[in-house]
Design a protein that fits this description.
mainly beta; Cyclophilin; 8-stranded antiparallel beta barrel; two-stranded antiparallel ribbon; 3 helices
């Protein structure tokens, strides 16, 4: 089962600040350099996009667009699009919310309760880790186990400038970004309960009623 590791989860409580972990001084050596992506990049208008519709079936819903960056994370983008185009994400839930840190989902079918460990949806084989894009606010990255090359379907949305996941435990592969985060911010208003549903000892806030991905569609 994919998750952000416990050390990364604790970063939700003590973030590494807003500084981007990019080597910017000529005298700095062995400092990983990460790309901060945006719509201002050359060729950004040609990047593929995926539109997600999410709802808890009551008052909370939102539609947001993920712009993908295959020039920086080709394997990860191809993997994500394979899941999208197969309809894999439809009906899965955003199951883990860490305030000021991430919103994670893409692996469990609704309904998911707080009283047991649900079955994870069958996935494609895991992919190679690509760490080039910085996990800043609004970026989307792959969740994984403690094994580096273990990401499958689960992803997380960075709801803060979480540059610590760039390198922590080998890093986490950001592969896209959400320009308009207002629908995601609205989703964070969904009621949730503390739960550990994945069997890995990492707790988060599970939205109940579940935040369900109604559809994930490639729109560019």
């Amino acid at each position: 089962m994919n998750t952000i590791t416990s050390r990364i989860s604790r970063a939700g409580l003590v973030l590494a600040g807003l500084a981007i972990l990019a080597g910017c001084g000529g005298d700095e050596v062995n400092v990983p350099k990460f790309v901060v992506v945006s719509d201002a990049d050359p060729g950004a208008a040609e990047r593929p996009q995926v539109t997600m519709v999410v709802s808890n079936g009551e008052e909370i819903s939102g539609t947001f667009v993920i712009t993908l960056v295959p020039e920086h994370a080709p394997v990860t983008v191809e993997n994500f699009l394979n899941y999208v185009e197969s309809g894999f994400y439809d009906g899965t839930v955003l199951h883990r919310y860490h305030p000021t840190f991430v919103l994670q989902g893409g692996g469990y079918i609704s309904p998911v309760g707080a009283d047991g460990i649900p079955d994870h949806k069958a996935t494609n084989p895991p992919i190679a880790l690509e760490t080039k894009v910085s996990n800043v606010y609004g970026t989307v990255a792959m969740a994984r186990t403690q094994a580096l090359h273990s990401a499958t379907s689960e992803f997380f949305i960075n709801i803060n400038n979480n540059t610590r996941p760039n390198t922590q435990g080998g890093g986490y592969a950001a592969f896209g970004y959400i320009t308009d985060m207002s629908p995601v911010v609205g989703l964070l208003e969904a009621p949730c309960v503390d739960a550990e549903i994945t069997g890995d000892g990492i707790y988060g806030c599970l939205p109940i009623p579940n935040l369900v991905i109604i559809s994930a569609t490639r729109t560019r």
